[in-house]
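G.,

No rush on this.
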Amino acid sequence: MWLTPSTAERREENKTPGGLGNYLARQASSKTYLSRRGSGQKKALKTDDNDDLETLLDPKETKEEYDFSGQRAYENACIKYGVVPAATFHKKLSYSTDIDLKHYGLGPKGALAIAIPMVINTRVTKLNLRGNSLGVEGIDNICRMMEENSTIVDLDLAQNNLRSRGAKIVANMLYVNQSIQRLNLSDNGFLDIDARKLALPVEDHSSLTYLNLSHNNFGVEGGIAFRKMIAENATLEELDLSWNQIRGYGAIAICKGLKENNLLRSFNVAWNGFHEEGGIEMASALKASSTLQEVDISSNRIPNEAFLILIKVVKDHEKLTVLKIGKNPITEDAALAGLEILRQALYIKLERLDLTENIYTSAFDQKVQEVTESHEHFKCIHGYAHSYGQRKLKSFDVVDEAMTFLKNYVDEHNISLVELFSTFDQDGSMSVTYDEFREGLKMARIPLSPLQVEHLIQGLDQDGDGEIDFSELVIGAEQHEQAQNAK
């Protein structure tokens, strides 16, 4: 096996001075200090009302019981590694099964400090470490802990900049830990070369039911690597591969793997590049599947022909209740034809057809009504929708919606508007052509429909010179903010 270091080596390392296992053994029964909430000062814990320091050192004192919560080990670890204790984490160790530390700024040392008590703790089953800049050292600490911990079954490691070295560490952990059921590895900068590292242990994992690999940089080779993982895994029920760059042969490979899977219920590949070939192959996979209940293939450049093939398969599917296929270049004529196929069916299991961001006329609304009359449980969502999924009014300002997406993007990625614009502006002229602006939005993967992009371009180019200046983007952002404040 290609594990590096091996499980045995890691366990041997933990027995050495300074190793995690040895440190835990020493710390679990030692006298500790607790960072008092509010004062920020570390005070000695008392065993009685006597403040005399000698009381704490009295050899006749009764030995304290073993701390199964890990609180004392956490206190000692914080002192040893110079980490400011997280009061919420310390408190919840004693009673909670769910610990949420997302965006706590833990870093590598903070990760080590929480890993130590989590080896002892047998209560916590869910741990959220999203957005903590763990890096390689931090994820190594967490994964060493997970190799020893069998009670945490839900682990969120999203947005931690793990990259290739982190992917290998996580993969090694998955070979050892066979009890984890839910794992989120979204937005960690993984590449195609990391796909095989992660796919191999998942393929044979005995407990994993949910895996999120979205918002990474998997492409064609990544899709090919995931084929066998999808086909062979016997536990996964939900798989999220959205917001990657899987297309061509990679998209086809994923669908072929899906065709051989007998357990997946939810499959999300939105915001990739399946195109017509991938869409047709997805229809073939759906036809072969007897378990899929929800499929999201939104924003994949699925054309009319592939859409209609998918609808014909969905019409007869016995399990599928949700198909999300919005933000694709599906014309109104094709959409109407798809609804007619559903209307004519004696019975359809489909409850929700999501065509969000696809704008059609009142004739489409009428056809939806006809389908609903034949199948009362059926709903079709189409048109503009804001982030909470509610329908927009027809008078909705397309430019305002696009500016909202831009604002959300810079806020979520903690960058400024000028930093975003500079990625579009390759020559540093502080001005970009329409094509450069379109390409920049595409590369940044900002979720704008083609119609939104065109309206945004026309709205920003106030002098009509065929280019968008940075000053025009700033003015547009200010006008958007003023409009929002006025609401």
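When you get to it, here's the other one too:
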Amino acid sequence: VSTQSTWGLMDKKIQDDGSEEPEEKKELSPEEKEMLKRLEKGELELVDSKKTGGKSAINNDPKYEQYTLMGYEVNPKLGLVYKDLDNISKQRKAIFTLLKSLGSNLLHGKSLMNVSMPVTIFDTMSLLERSAGDYIYAPIYAEKMYEAEDPVDKMKYAVAMTVASLHLNLSQKKPFNPIWGETFQGKIGNLNVWCEQTSHHPPISHLLLDCEHYTIDAKHQFTLSTYPNSATFKCLGHRRIVLKDKAKTTYIIDFPWAETKGFMFGARVFSYKGNIRIRDKTNKLYAQLRLNAGEKSFAEGLFKGQDARNDFFKGLITKNKALLKDMSRKAFYSKDMISYVEGLWIDYVMIDGDKYWEIDKVPFVPLVREPNPLPSDSLYRNDLKALISGSLEESQKQKEIMEEIQRNDRKLRDLAKKKKQLMPLFTCTVIN
């Protein structure tokens, strides 16, 4: 993507027919000039999502697989339908094998914790790296938040960035669970990224992303509820953005929950449920979006017989917090509503009639691993290295060794608690 066309898109408004309004001559900000210099030097890469997935949802470039809808087809009524039949077959075989192992362990009085998931269904990255990839739109939208003077405009960019991240990292391949103390380092453009697994049980990770104009920190505690043919996923904790402006404007973001159906039989379908909530603690502004709203957008409402889309969302920006409790039709006609938001989370975000994000219009900045990270980095995991090299047997062996070490360390911690003794500063088992 040329630097001119890339940054030009951010200053154009997309009309209903998909065309662009005449471009207005605008002086670039110092930050944009700096990013253009870095682009010309090759220090920064902008990626056009249209070339890495976009609305087609199918793409064969594995380099950006985690950021796209690769392997999915969009079903307006059901949600995202996963079409990689080979991977689905591997996962179902692994689940049957796991169920057999569970039954065998129960019959022989062994712990269920001794059952290890096969690496054939794993992705070549840890959960820390996958979580960090949720912020690849930050160099675009968080910078816009910093530059905007009106708090409402800042909130609009926060809404756009949050919705844009929903289609990222939806790979059906399982990431490696981080070990307590495991880290990950990388960069997203000029944004430094640090992640660490800070708790073993419950599994909790913390993320810190920092650059000149803003800081993002997050606590991720993933929970999984399984059913006979489906599962629901929730990310407890928070995401916080602190702008380095005079007011130190601070945002807290709460994410919705997700559901995947078709684990054992039928179509594999992914969809979001619940609400996105964004709070501007500094200016007392609130945004709330209801996903899978079961309604039609304004444009779709003009056509009779058209079903409501699964990926449709609607919401509002307000200063009246009480308005968010109900989110009924009455709320959207209230005088306290500052801005109306709607869109399709796999396609676009529209606020007050203007499109703030489109999947095939706005580029993202990919996450790049730190080449020389700390020794505790995911990059050095023996099971992950073996899987990347294509050695499934060695990867499975190393994975089980690491899991046994974790179980042993937990026994030591539990034993120390029972004896009411002080733990050493570090307790670990050294491999190699």
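The first strand starts at residue 72 and ends at 75. The chain is about 25% helix and 30% strand.

Enjoy the weekend,
O.
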